[in-house]
């Protein structure tokens, strides 16, 4: 094989490795979550961020003080230390809502919407990072 052929295959290999490593499973934060429904598709409460929060990894979302957060799940195993939800606001302009986890200690509940009575098992996709 020519040097050029080796170079082309090297570039293809690097591209494939980069794509495969771009998404990865992260350690589970919990094995169970409490939700309003079996799919965790309905918000259970609205909360407001008490302070700015900058996440340590891609499972989490950043929050700005005063920002509204729609909470969809309460992670159950560790005393509800983490919740799952979405944010969108004028700070983010036209971006779509961002989904992820955040510590429950950095928000305060402002409105209860639906009871979180469904216990749902988490899976690896709950903690998948792009």
UniProtKB/TrEMBL annotation:
Alphabetical list of Pfam families matching this protein: SH3_2 (PF07653)
Keywords noted in UniProt: SH3 domain, Signal
Gene Ontology annotations of biological process type: extracellular matrix organization
Domain SH3 span(s) in chain numbering: 42-112
InterPro entries, per the entry: MIA (IPR043369), SH3-like_dom_sf (IPR036028), SH3_domain (IPR001452)
Residues of the signal peptide: 1-22
Domain of life: Eukaryota
Protein name as catalogued: SH3 domain-containing protein
Source organism: Oncorhynchus tshawytscha (Chinook salmon)
Gene, per the UniProt record: mia
